[in-house]
């Protein structure tokens, strides 16, 4: 009987840990205005996590290009732009990658922390995490 309960708890514990992933579609919320901006789809490729803008809510920004971006992203359309690059799972968070702000073209170190299965905190920073800003992203259903 005790082993049966153990296996049931183990099963549900595994289910809960698998359901809390950053994979999927996320609604981005501007940290300064609180306005919903876009949908970013986070996907895994060769053990690292990436995020691409798949929808922009403000019609006047849908056809803009990332003019201030550098390197391979320069002058690419923002819609379809991969803004999260090279994130790695580290315990309960994801880090070690970069995030690009298409508004100013700058890239920052990035850390993503899960806050439940439907909310993540995305922090972009320079140097150490103390010097940066965070956005809450809500899972898009």
Automatic annotation (TrEMBL):
It comes from the Bacteria. This is DUF2147 domain-containing protein. Residues 24-139 form the DUF2147 domain. InterPro entries: DUF2147. PANTHER family: BLL5882 PROTEIN, BLR1215 PROTEIN.
């Amino acid at each position: 009987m005790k082993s049966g309960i153990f296996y049931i708890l183990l099963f549900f514990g595994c289910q809960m840990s698998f359901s809390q992933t950053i994979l999927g579609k996320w609604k981005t919320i501007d940290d300064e205005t609180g306005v919903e901006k876009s949908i970013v789809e986070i996907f895994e490729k060769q053990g690292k996590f990436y995020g691409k803008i798949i929808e922009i809510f403000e019609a006047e920004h849908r056809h803009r290009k990332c003019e201030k971006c550098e390197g391979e992203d320069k002058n690419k359309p923002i819609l379809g732009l991969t803004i999260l690059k090279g994130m790695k799972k580290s315990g309960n968070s994801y880090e070690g990658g970069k995030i690009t702000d298409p508004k100013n073209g700058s890239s920052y170190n990035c850390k993503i922390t899960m806050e439940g299965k439907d909310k993540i905190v995305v922090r972009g920073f320079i140097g150490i995490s103390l010097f940066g800003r965070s956005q809450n992203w809500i899972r898009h259903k």
